[in-house]
Description:
Layout: H1 11-20, H2 22-26, H3 31-70, H4 74-80, H5 85-93, E1 102-106, H6 114-121, E2 126-131, H7 134-142, E3 150-153, E4 166-172, H8 181-191, E5 192-202, H9 206-212, H10 225-235, E6 237-244, E7 249-255
Parallel strand pairs: 1-2, 1-4, 2-3, 4-5
Antiparallel strand pairs: 5-7, 6-7
Amino acid sequence: xxxxxxxxxxxxxxxxxxxxxxxxxxxxxxxxxxxxxxxxxxxxxxxxxxxxxxxxxxxxxxxxxxxxxxxxxxxxxxxxxxxxxxxxxxxxxxxxxxxxxxxxxxxxxxxxxxxxxxxxxxxxxxxxxxxxxxxxxxxxxxxxxxxxxxxxxxxxxxxxxxxxxxxxxxxxxxxxxxxxxxxxxxxxxxxxxxxxxxxxxxxxxxxxxxxxxxxxxxxxxxxxxxxxxxxxxxxxxxxxxxxxxxxxxxxxxxxxx
Length: 257
């Protein structure tokens, strides 16, 4: 149930109502004067609600564009990139996760890293696969990845996880899809215990990806070392290794504090 509240009403709207419904206006003497008093009381609350609603719409616009891109591709994503399995496993091995730990694959897609993450933490560990696109998680489940990890539909920038509850985060290609990478790195630091690991990965290097899309390297790329290192420092990470090779990108950071 809900109560309709027209926060958008102002004096012009009250005048328009009175003009459109003169009989009702006559039956309510002092309508405009009372409305002015009530609108003055409502004004600060209206501004707060509408500002929050505008912020919500702006935030969801980012999710919408991501889902619009990935949803129609989810059905064939695994087949298109089936050969990437070994490189994902090799990247996960660089994280150094151990038995019994809790690890998260952020932006997991169809879950290509989940088998290696599960192998790393063993049967007693916890593996979470997080993605904002339901179709990708459905595809992961069709490929049996839901038997290796708990699949969670969630925003990687606002994780429903307690602070310090994670030992390792794996993220392949997600940073470049985020409208604001810096706050995301801060959120990932929040959920990671001190000494925990963040591994940023892509099966193609930055130069190769730029060439594939017919554009030069972007100096504002959040994965460029000159941008990534200070962003990690500010978020509570220490960049331990940076590798931008032709056929892959890999950066490993450690949670400080």
